[in-house]
Amino acid sequence: MSLSENFDDFSLYIHFPWCVRKCPYCDFNSHESRGRIDERRYVNTLIRDFDDSIDAFKNRTITSIFLGGGTPSLFSGKSLKRLIRYIRDRVSCRDDLEVTLEANPGSLEHHDQFGEYLDAGINRLSLGVQSLDDGCLIRIGRIHHADDVRKALENARTSGFCNINIDMMYGLPDQSLDMAIKDCEHAIAFGTEHISCYQLTLEPNTLFYLDPPTLADHDSIYRMQTELQALLEDHGYVQYEVSAYARAGMQCRHNMHYWTFGDYLGIGAGAHSKILAEDGVLRIWKEKHPEHYQRKVASGASWKNHEPVRQEYLMVEFMMNALRIKQGVSLDAFEQRTLLNREDLLSLAQVFRDEDLLVIENGLLRCTDRGYLFIDEIIERMIP
Ligand SMILES: C[S@@+](CC[C@H](N)C(=O)[O-])C[C@H]1O[C@@H](n2cnc3c(N)ncnc32)[C@H](O)[C@@H]1O
Ligand code: SF4
Fold first, then answer.
1. pLDDT value, residue 1
2. Is residue 62 included in any domain, yes or no?
3. What is the pLDDT of residues 122-171, one digit of tens each?
4. Distance 279 CA to ligand 1 centre (A)
5. Ligand 1 site, residue 77, Cβ cutoff 6 A
6. Among residues 238, 257, 276, which one ends one of the domains?
7. How many angstroms is it from 22 CA to the middle of ligand 2?
8. Cα–ligand 1 centroid distance for 130 (angstroms)
9. Edge-to-edge strands of the sheet including 364-367?
10. Would 36 be classed as within a structural domain?
11. 35: cis peptide before it, omega within 30°?
12. In the chain, how many domains are there?
């Protein structure tokens, strides 16, 4: 799939806030489902949220839809089809619209579930694999085993999915360098189009933060990172973002849209939107708790907040996303998507160019190889 080039396109994110069990490292807006989810009620709520929000994106085209969570694969293909059809009937969508579903290998009980998802219009799967070592999976509290991943991928392929990502994590509790490499080799052997490889981080408000497991030290993690990078590259997975690797032409359009500071509409509990309005960039976020969100939308009580991004932070926000992309971001995109002048960006970047951390080539701003190792430090120094 080609990446989004039209500055007027926008992306749609749809949040599904339930999971079978809360993972101890996860700080996403996800809640244990405890019993049957009322899919009809939630889809109706999403539809109302969509109807209420879409006016701000009038006459614009959707380039990608991402159904994320939580665990959207807890929902049936039938429910997702109703939702996707409703949206597609009301907004112009690109012919080659990318529609991703996040799926948990432990929440795919029905054999024909993938067929139903394809029928719903989903054409990209993102499977939360994390590890293929059962010991590691248990230590990070996952509900699935390595065997479930094999079955899920087999079923997905047989059903006809030909654009699949797997999420992997490294730096797991009691994981050695050899174990991380073996994990990555197993992941590569599946031959998916895309692999995301995240370093486990201890996020505040998680069980792991309160009671940290034993993790490898900084130097060992750095070694893991560089060895996994090399392994993935050797097997044809090109790194295009800090944690994202893809075969040629198979980058995730939705995430690229975020990283290039494109506008997006978020619907669902806790979902965020970003939109370029006449007087600057506006951020909107929805009520976070699933029950409160549903009640408020149903009753018409206010379920969203908004705030303009202050000018002095706009450039830093742009850079926080842009510097993640290996190939860089165009100065045209900067001007179109922030309404700021490229001269301002160039003057902010000058000191880092002098230090050989950033470079501008062919209208693209990007990190040098050295700069790519220090993204957090560069951003920290940019904060006003
Ligand atoms: C939005 S999460 C949800 C995906 C899906 N619910 C699942 O877990 O199977 C997307 C990905 O972020 C990564 N992730 C979540 N928490 C993380 C953490 N604390 N550190 C590193 N990666 C994390 C995981 O790889 C996960 O698959
Ligand atoms: S399944 Fe995914 S979203 Fe749900 S708790 Fe675990 S990591 Fe978080």
1. 39
2. yes
3. 999 999 999 999 999 999 999 999 999 999 999 999 999 999 999 999 99
4. 35
5. no
6. 257
7. 6
8. 8
9. 329-330, 364-367, 358-361
10. yes
11. no
12. 2
